[in-house]
Design goal:
single chain; six-stranded antiparallel β-barrel
Length: 675
């Protein structure tokens, strides 16, 4: 054979080998992609991403592999990675409409609404019946809170695609969120009839009935979902939450352990484990579970609040866990203090004081806050506690205490010879109740309500008679299932108001609904809702709740001393009293909270006179008294009220829903994650 013929044969063999090898790589890439799709359908997102990554490495021009990567990252909430992957897919297949739809959905999830809208609109102009674009447009309308338009769009889309699973489920969720429950259930049943073998449909049916507290029906669908997909962790966890609600703790722990074996890095599962162990009175194991959850997700505020609650009730001040928790809150408070965000700093510093009340660093942080707020009397009291009770003496502390104690000799409380922090206050008596929901963190409402009661106690205005005292603090807000329970308990305790909190959450948002009722009649005085996102969403909701209660509820004080035409009242700087204010003096037996709950009603002869304030202290004020009649009957014990609380202003519309302050409503997130 000639040299030329030999060379040609060799080249042919090389080419054939290369083609066979390339075909093998191509086949392997397709297999990895198909395996990734299967894993996506099973909610095993990290493993799915791994398979798509292998496929893209084997064939860097395989656009579908990049779509798979994008979808996996999108469902994980990693939107930057999702966008990078889909942009690569679009560069490889610029005419693919599905990839453009995916890009628009990612942009929407990032809050880039206008650009997402432009893409959806362009696709629909080209193809008015494009299902993916119609669904994306529906998500956009939900995200921008155009709920009625979203309902109409999903109904129109269903007429075009009457047997599409995503369309049917989207419509079910939208109608349920709108309160059209019977219609929602009809569409859910239609979906179940068509797709009874789909585990996601069965799971969503379980969630649908769990949200209605129809737990037996919910468990039936969840069991079916787990038969179809035994590794569906969200079904395992939802079943756990229902069993916790039913106090079947041993069985709940069994299903939760299965979920943890599949997702050991899920902090919410460790929260649930800690709750079960806590309910089983196994405090050490509960603490270890919550510590594990917090090590995985240090910003999970529900895990932290729960662990703090256990630490306050069960651990000594020197315990390492309690100390670490207190130091963390102190650092948070000090950071906000350096930013002059005093109200927010106060929330975290007071939380730290609850955890470490005898720690000098914590008490010094509180002293710095009080001084920055101009609450000098409280600042002096805090310095006295640090020096006299904690035996901390430095030149700076001693000098500061000497200077400010001298200044306080001219204060209102010193002039009247009283200890203002020991005088009785006229508290608003307001039990706090919460309604348990099978949310991501079971009984999260309990710990939110508990943290709220701790926070309100620092303001010297509220009393919570429904909470038995434990370790020097009022604890355990009351869990209720029916509103009548709260009304009866509040009446029994002779409360002024009662507060009912509902809390729901998903992986990205927390939603809180608060209702204030007049205890005497059960009348709804005010209803507000808030949605918060971000790492501090739980504490942000807590601060919102505190502000609402201080802003919405009327209060009064008392005349505690009188000297000729001078009077001393138990309201001061903390209550918003300022020099020049004029307050009404009334017979306490002839004033009553009005039926609207935001003012006081008074008998015709109840108003005795006025006190015009000229000097203000932290919790007391003094001023000049003037009587309304020739015979001056004003005496200590009489009530003093701000004019604005004597039937001033119109009642709030109790039926008006509160404003959602989050980026997007949670219904958008639910529908966005359908597939």
């Amino acid at each position: 054979m000639s040299f030329r013929k030999t060379s040609m044969v060799a080249i042919s063999l090389v080419l054939i080998t290369h083609m066979v090898f390339s075909q093998g790589l191509e086949n392997n890439a397709i297999q990895n992609y198909q395996r990734g799709v299967e894993l996506l359908q099973q909610d095993r997102l990290l493993r799915a991403i791994q398979q798509f990554e292998y496929a893209s490495q084997l064939n860097p021009r395989y656009a579908q592999a990049y779509w798979g990567l994008s979808e996996g990252y999108f469902l994980l909430g990693e939107y930057d990675e999702a966008q990078n992957s889909i942009q690569t897919a679009i560069s490889l297949a610029p005419g693919n409409i599905s990839y453009k739809n995916q890009l628009a959905r990612i942009l929407l999830a990032q809050g880039i609404v206008d650009e997402a809208d432009s893409i959806f609109t362009a696709i629909l102009a080209q193809d008015p019946y494009n299902k993916e674009a119609l669904l994306g447009k529906g998500e956009l309308l939900l995200a921008t809170q155009e709920f009625s338009q979203a309902q109409s769009l999903f109904l129109d889309t269903l007429s075009l695609h009457p047997r599409d699973r995503r369309v049917l489920l989207s419509l079910t969720l939208v109608l349920e969120a709108a309160g059209r429950r019977d219609e929602a259930e009809r569409y859910l049943q239609r979906t179940l009839d068509l797709f009874s073998e789909n585990y996601q449909v069965q799971f969503l049916a379980g969630k649908f009935y769990a949200d209605r507290d129809e737990f037996s029906t919910a468990l039936g669908h969840l069991n079916t979902a787990l038969t179809l997909n035994p590794d569906l962790t969200k079904a395992l966890h939802l079943k756990t939450l229902i069993l916790i609600q039913q106090e079947q703790y041993a069985q709940a722990l069994e299903f939760l352990e299965r979920a943890l074996r599949l997702e050991p890095q899920n902090s919410t599962y460790w929260y649930s484990r800690g709750l079960i162990q806590y309910r089983q009175a196994n405090i050490p194991q509960a603490i270890e579970s919550l510590k594990r959850g917090l090590s995985i997700a240090p910003y999970n505020e529900m895990v932290r609040l729960f662990l703090e609650s256990i630490a306050i009730d069960n651990l000594g001040y020197e315990d390492d866990v309690r100390r670490q928790l207190g130091e963390y809150r102190t650092r948070q408070g000090q950071e906000y203090l350096t930013q002059n965000r005093f109200s927010r700093a106060a929330v975290y510093i007071e939380r730290a004081v609850s955890l470490l009340p005898t720690d000098p660093t914590v008490r010094l942080a509180r002293a710095s806050l009080l001084r920055a707020q101009g609450k000098i009397a409280s600042y002096v009291e805090e310095l006295q506690f640090i020096v006299n009770r904690l035996n901390v003496t430095t030149i700076e502390l001693t000098d500061a205490l000497e200077v400010y104690e001298y200044e306080q000799q001219q204060s209102v409380s010193s002039q009247w010879g009283i200890q203002q922090f020991q005088i009785p206050r006229d508290y608003i008596v307001m039990p706090i109740f919460y309604r348990a929901r099978p949310t991501i963190h079971p009984e999260a409402g309990d710990f939110l309500a508990l943290a709220l009661s701790d926070l309100l106690m620092t303001g010297n205005r509220f009393s919570f008679t429904s909470m038995p005292e434990l370790n020097g603090r009022f604890r355990s807000p009351m869990k209720i299932t029916e509103m009548d329970e709260a009304f009866m308990l509040a009446r029994e305790q002779n409360a002024d108001f009662y507060l009912v909190i509902d809390m729901q959450e998903d992986e990205r948002e927390v939603y809180v609904s608060a209702r204030i009722y007049l205890a005497r009649t059960g009348r709804l005085v005010w209803h507000g809702t808030v949605t918060r996102t971000g790492n501090e969403r739980v504490m942000d909701s807590l601060i919102w709740l505190e502000n609402q209660l201080y802003d919405r509820l009327p209060f009064h004080g008392s005349l505690i001393q009188r000297r000729d035409n001078r009077g001393l009242i138990n309201l001061g700087q903390y209550d918003g009293v300022q020099p020049g204010d004029t307050l009404q003096i009334a017979d306490p037996n002839q004033i009553l909270l009005s039926i609207n709950g935001i003012t006081f009603s008074a008998e015709e002869n109840a108003l005795q006179g006025l006190i015009t304030i000229d000097e203000v202290d932290s919790l007391v004020s003094s001023g000049t008294i003037s009587s309304n009649s020739f015979f001056d009957t004003i005496n200590h014990g009489d009530s003093v009220l701000f004019e604005e609380f004597l039937n001033a202003g119109e009642p709030l519309n109790a039926d008006q829903p509160g404003q959602s302050l989050g980026q997007f409503p949670s219904i958008y997130a639910e529908i966005r994650d359908l597939r």
